[in-house]
Automatic annotation (TrEMBL):
Record Gene3D superfamilies: 3.40.50.2300, 6.10.250.690, Winged helix-like DNA-binding domain superfamily/Winged helix DNA-binding domain (1.10.10.10)
Keyword Methyltransferase recorded: no
Single biological process term from Gene Ontology: regulation of DNA-templated transcription
A Pfam entry, by short name: Response_reg
Organism: Brevibacillus brevis (strain 47 / JCM 6285 / NBRC 100599)
Upper lineage: Bacteria, Bacillati, Bacillota, Bacilli, Bacillales
SUPFAM superfamilies named among the record's database cross-references: CheY-like
Record's keyword terms, sorted: DNA-binding, Phosphoprotein, Transcription, Transcription regulation, Two-component regulatory system
Record PTM 4-aspartylphosphate, positions in chain: 60
Name of the protein in question: Two-component response regulator
Length: 230
């Protein structure tokens, strides 16, 4: 199943004060099958979210008047829309601020359209699994309603936590996921245990995937884990 066929009916709101960026992203996302809305300022963006209830908002930080941080804060009060923030600045403080206000992801300009598309798909799968209840990703098939994952046509015997962890890794394939990110998204923000629990479950998943060479779930020393399709 192609990603494009899954995108039909999914609404994305682009918010940026640069018309050339809006036009480029709008054209690319519409070609992928998304329904695309655009706004060039924060107040218009807030209004459009109330009226159209998009699934994903791609939000520029540096805008005149109401900046992206304030827009993000207001959007999260309206609905739990998936938000990807864009910025030309590499300041860690900016990224922390955006994520603290409720942003779900952060990208630094310039970026590739392919990476943005991958992050959009990841946000959709994590926020709206009912839209993509059965998803094919490389050799994996995730059936979220049945809480089942198959690999190369073989149904994996997974515990609920193993299912949640493998789903998180696979739907974010190609992205490096740190242990704190995994703990927050799989075990929850209030998890009080040790980070080493991630290693234990990764080891179990590798056993079930027959991934002795760590070619499917890769370890990036000091950074985290990344799923690659082989």
């Amino acid at each position: 199943m192609k990603e494009m066929s899954l995108n039909k009916g999914i609404k994305i709101l682009l918010v940026d004060d640069e018309p050339t960026i809006l036009q480029f992203l709008e054209m690319g996302l519409e070609n992928e099958g998304f329904q695309v809305l655009t706004a060039q300022d924060g107040m218009n963006a807030v209004t459009m979210v109330k009226e159209h209830q998009p699934h994903v908002v791609i939000l520029d930080v540096m805008m005149p008047g109401m900046d992206g941080f304030e827009v993000c804060r207001m959007l999260k009060k309206i609905q739990n829309v998936a938000t990807i923030m864009l910025t030309a600045r590499e300041d860690v403080e900016d990224r922390v601020k955006g994520l603290t206000l409720g942003a779900d992801d952060y990208m630094i300009k310039p970026f590739s359209f392919e990476e943005l598309l991958a992050r959009i798909h990841a946000r959709i799968r994590n926020h709206y699994p009912h839209l993509l209840s059965k998803v094919h990703l490389g050799p994996f098939q995730i059936d979220d309603r049945r809480k089942e994952i198959t690999y190369d046509g073989t149904l994996l015997e997974l515990s609920p936590t193993e299912y949640s962890l493998l789903k998180y890794l696979v739907t974010n394939h190609g992205l490096v996921l740190s242990k704190p990110m995994i703990l927050d998204n799989v075990w929850g923000y209030d998890f009080g245990g040790e980070e080493n629990i991630v290693e234990v479950y990764i080891r179990s998943l590798r056993d079930k995937l027959n991934d002795r060479q760590h070619r499917i779930i890769r370890t990036l020393r000091g950074a985290g884990y990344r799923v690659d399709f082989v």
